[in-house]
Amino acid sequence: MLEVIPILCRAGQMDNYAYLLVDKNTGTVAVLDASEAEPIIEECERKKIRPQFLLNTHHHFDHVEGNAELKALFGAKIVGAAKDKSRIEGLDISLNDGDVFKIGDSEARIISADGHTIGHILWYFVQDKVLFTGDTLFNLSIGGLFEGTPEQMWNSLQKIKQLPDDVLFYPGHEYTAYGMNALEGEAGRKYAEKVQKRLSEGKPAGPISLGEEKECNPYLKIDKLQDFCRLFN
Ligand code: ZN
Ligand code: FE
Question: Which terminus of the chain, N or C, has less C-beta within 10 A?
């Protein structure tokens, strides 16, 4: 069983989330997207835990900048996409689409998701029904196309749409508020109620289930490639 602890990084600037992943069976700990070292070290000290792995979704600085310091401090291994081998500094373990990576007894399946970058990966813990989407999928929006084409992003989003509705997803940034005005209908009302309550308590808006996201995220609601591509013209 996997415990997920969000850590807000670059608060008020880029509002990144790093996530502490704790495998409850073995006590094995990983950090996903070490955005900056300081808040992550503080949380590890508070919880008296030492990460063994630093997992990455993609090479952008706001997702990897804490890697070097955490690797030095904890002796943790940096894990990311083989395609990012030359772009994620100090990468120790490189993974490809379909690979399985274990945090103790918790198994993640790697899903390649080009679009935001080429080489972006999603971390899908199948048994735990947990998905880390990095800068591919946010609450109510998606990541910008820095390297990929609209078609590549579309393909990546279709992979997410095919996953079960009861999977909870954890995005790379807290951008929920920007998408709220697009919410509509009964599903939208419920979504707004849930995330507004959490945000007003100073918590992350997520996690939200993929089922709820499919109903409310305007980019996931589009079901024709043509219509999706038109957004980027
Ligand atoms: Zn990014
Ligand atoms: Fe980012």
Answer: C
CA 33 – ligand 2 centroid, Å: 9
Ligand 1 center–CA 39 separation, angstroms: 19
Ligand with an atom nearest the CA of residue 120: 1
**Count of beta carbons in the 10 Å neighbourhood of residue 119:** 22
Q: What is the pLDDT of residues 41-68, one digit of tens each?
A: 999 999 999 999 999 999 999 999 999 9
C-alpha 111 – ligand 1 centre gap (Å): 16
Ligand 1 centroid–CA 68 distance in Å is 18
- Superfamily of structural domain 2-230: Ribonuclease Z/Hydroxyacylglutathione hydrolase-like (3.60.15.10)
End-to-end CA distance of the chain: 44
In this prediction, residue 34 has a pLDDT band, given cuts at 50, 70 and 90, of: very high
Task: Assess whether pLDDT exceeds 90 at residue 233.
Answer: no
Dist. CA 151–CA 168, nearest whole Å? 25
Question: Ligand 2 centroid vs 41 CA: distance in angstroms?
Answer: 20
121-130: pLDDT as tens digits: 999 999 999 9
CA of 210 to the centre of ligand 2 (A): 20
